[in-house]
Design brief:
The structure is a single chain. The protein has about 550 residues and is of the alpha/beta class. The N and C termini lie far apart (about 60 Å). It has 2 domains: about 280 residues, Rossmann fold (3-Layer(aba) Sandwich); about 200 residues, Rossmann fold. It has 19 helices and 23 strands. The chain binds glutamine (GLN).
Length: about 550
């Protein structure tokens, strides 16, 4: 029988609920259980594909082509499992199913009500995940914070599942304990309120994960225990850590895994964190840095820098750097800045390698192209991801092949030399304004050309990688580009699409139409990132 663990957040968002979920999963997995995780997002959007990255962070893409919340990426990285479309629930998805069913007369003449029909649909989806994955544990992360109007119906679904089968569902509250500077003391009151709010939804948390800047001391644990009505052993101290990958190990030190098993009347088990611990040891050790610049535009939000928009890229850089026992130092390079100020391009020389990641729309495009040109000419290791590949092609076409007007039809609709063009079926979709979930999404096969750098990196002829794009390299220009030294290193044979390009006379210049970052895992760095970092380290030595 599958067991369900519902995880809700208290006090404020952004305290690491997703990492807590991924870590709980990792612990149970390390005890030999099969685990999966569900993300519930309370927004009306059917998926995250239509949400601006500065709003909600990166849009993660699953193998089966769903554009979802970045937390799913964390689940994948921790559990080393592919999480599929089914595991992603939004208010929009739930309501759409209920309304479609109603229109199909599937409610047999009943009036369809928010309660219980909406929670019932949520429950149906959660149970379907259990059935499909055959997991021992399904961890359900309820997005947002308790007390929000938006996630009430999800809490209601959790309560109803618990009511039906109390032995099969437990609740974890991930709460935040502030230490206000002027007081200098850790405060438990907001967590007490969050628990009360959960109580008013009919839910008593079984475990409280107490997130804070510092460890939670005995005194504070006692307070939480008494006021939140839980066993003191179920207050788990979760202080800030250097790396998210330490979190499962820290939780285990607090005996979280066996506390969870006890709630389900299961026997305690030992966890095996050997390999994971080795990676954590490398992370914690003082190491030589490898300096990587990311030329992007989705990181400025007011006066703050938001790294969430490129989270998978950042993690992939880290995984590869740790593989070489290096400390990744990631810097944000503003594409727009290069547009108005060509001289500042020189700063790129300070980096061992440069990445141009994915993106949409006109803003910052010319600056990114300039940065790519600089990397190509100065022989700085370069990795282009999706848009990064398209811009590398444009740059090469303009500056090496002499196609001055080269561009993508995404940025210049009627451009004379459309080296990047919209895919035919996408043209129709765009015309009909069918934007949601209609890009070329998810995993597609790619055949690698023998002898190329990519082929050597993957050590396979056939690979499969995840995509999210509407535009592609225009095959009409393939010959011109190849004649001037661009290598079409990876091809999707079914559609004859160029998936990877390389440039020969360069220490490392690879760009892919797909997003390799989605498949990198802490113990299994992605081959392209691994080789890129290797080249960057090498260039560093040469500096
Ligand atoms: N905007 C480009 C396209 O749609 C690239 C997308 C991306 O970088 N994910 O093809």
């Amino acid at each position: 029988m599958t067991k369900f663990i519902f995880v809700a957040g208290g006090v404020m968002s952004g305290v690491g609920k997703g990492i807590a979920v991924a870590s709980v999963g990792k612990i149970l997995q390390s005890k030999g259980f099969k685990v999966t995780a569900i993300k519930i997002d309370p927004y009306i959007n059917i998926d995250a594909g239509t949400i601006r990255p500065t709003e909600h962070g990166e849009v993660f893409v699953t193998e089966d082509g769903t554009e979802c919340d970045q937390d799913i990426g964390n689940y994948e990285r921790f559990l080393d499992e592919n999480i599929l479309d089914l595991n992603y629930i939004t208010t929009g998805r739930v309501y759409k199913t209920v309304i479609d069913k109603e229109r199909n007369l599937e409610y047999g003449g009943e009036d369809v009500e928010v309660v219980p029909d909406i929670p019932n649909e949520v429950i149906r989806r959660i149970k379907k995940v259990a059935k499909t994955t055959k997991a021992d544990f399904v961890i359900v992360e309820i997005g947002g914070t308790v007390g929000e109007y938006q996630n009430l119906l999800f809490l209601e679904a959790a309560r109803m599942m618990h009511l039906k089968s109390p032995g099969d569902a437990i609740f974890i509250l991930v709460s935040y304990l502030p230490v206000p500077k002027m007081i200098g003391e850790m405060k438990t009151k907001p967590t007490q309120y969050a628990t009360r709010t959960l109580n008013s939804a009919g839910i008593q948390p079984n475990i409280i994960i107490a997130r804070s800047e510092y460890s939670v001391d005995k005194k504070r644990k006692e307070k939480i225990s008494i006021f939140c009505n839980i066993d003191i052993k179920d207050v788990i101290s979760a202080p800030d850590v250097e790396s998210i990958y330490q979190v499962p190990i820290n939780f285990e030190k607090e005996n979280l895994g066996n506390r969870i098993l006890k709630k389900f009347n299961l026997k305690p088990r030992k966890s095996n964190f050997k390999k994971w611990q080795q990676t954590v040891n490398i992370i914690k050790k003082k190491k030589k840095p490898v300096k990587i610049g990311i030329v992007g535009k989705y990181f400025e939000t007011g006066s703050f820098t938001l790294m969430d928009s490129y989270i998978s890229v950042i993690e992939a850089i880290k995984h590869a750097s740790w593989f070489y026992k290096r400390k990744p130092e990631i810097h944000w390079l503003s594409a727009q800045h290069y547009e108005n100020n060509s001289r500042s391009l020189k700063e790129i020389k300070n980096y061992d390698g440069v990445i141009v990641p994915g993106g949409f729309g006109n803003r910052g495009i010319e600056g990114k192209i300039k940065a790519i040109e600089f990397c190509r000419k100065q022989k700085i290791p370069f990795l282009g991801l999706c848009l990064g590949m398209q811009l590398a092609v444009i740059e090469f076409a303009r500056n090496v092949c002499g196609l001055e007007k080269a561009n993508s039809t995404e940025f210049s609709k009627n451009c004379k030399e459309p080296v990047i063009d919209v895919m035919p079926e996408q043209k129709v979709l765009l015309k009909e304004k069918k934007y949601g979930g209609t890009m070329r999404l998810g995993a597609y096969k790619c055949e690698l050309k023998k002898g190329t750098r990519s082929w050597k990196a993957y050590k396979h002829k056939y690979i499969s990688e995840r995509h999210r794009h509407r535009y592609e390299l225009n095959n009409e220009f393939k010959d011109v580009l190849e004649n001037k030294g661009m290598i079409m290193a990876g091809i999707n044979q079914e559609r004859d699409l160029v998936e990877i390009i390389e440039i020969k006379e360069h220490p490392f210049f690879i760009a892919s139409q797909f997003h390799p970052e989605f498949k990198s895992r802490p113990l299994k760095p992605h081959p392209l990132f691994r080789e890129f970092i290797k080249a960057a380290i090498h260039s560093h030595i040469q500096h």
